[in-house]
Amino acid sequence: MLPYAFVISFVVILFAAILGNKTAITGGSGKVVDSGPNDHIFIYNSDHAGPGVLGMPTSPYIYANRLIEVLKKKHAAGTYESLVFYLEACESGSIFEGLLPEGLNIFATTASNAEGSS
């Protein structure tokens, strides 16, 4: 978990951190995923979830379509060679199932399918 003040939402912080966007984050350590084209990225998230939505410590929550757009943007920036995303949450399969396009060199694994408990 990246240590940031609660001035902006966790979703904004997480997405900015994944994209390596230091200017989008105020307060905290300033740490972001500052990766290059030869880097391998590992993301782990564990929280509550529901169909197409991931819980966060405070609202707003992460919606599957927004997360996928961030991952596409990260790929388009050419700032990783491969990305592994481990997601532990109930119904976590709904975040990637049928939404994560091929060709992004992302391996996503979840603790449950789109309808199950983890």
Number of DSSP E strands: 6
Specify the structural class: alpha/beta
Q: What overall geometry do the principal axes of the alpha carbons give?
A: globular
Number of helices: 3
Along the chain, the helix and strand elements come as HEEEEHEHE
Folded structure, characterized:
This is Putative legumain protein. Its EC number is 3.4.22.34. Residues 1-20 form the signal peptide. Keywords: Hydrolase, Signal. It is an enzyme of class 3 (hydrolase). There is one protein chain. The protein has a domain at 35-110. The mean pLDDT is 90. The chain has 118 residues and is of the alpha/beta class. It is globular, with a radius of gyration of 14 Å. The strands form two sheets. It has a three-stranded parallel beta sheet with strand order 1-5-6, with no helix packed on it. Helix content is 23%, strand content 21%.
Task: Based on the model shown, name its key terms.
three-stranded parallel sheet; globular; 118 residues; 6 strands; alpha/beta; three-stranded antiparallel sheet
Provide the fold topology:
Blueprint: H1 10-19, E1 40-46, E2 49-50, E3 53-54, E4 62-63, H2 64-76, E5 82-88, H3 93-96, E6 106-110
Parallel strand pairs: 1-5, 5-6
Antiparallel strand pairs: 2-3, 3-4
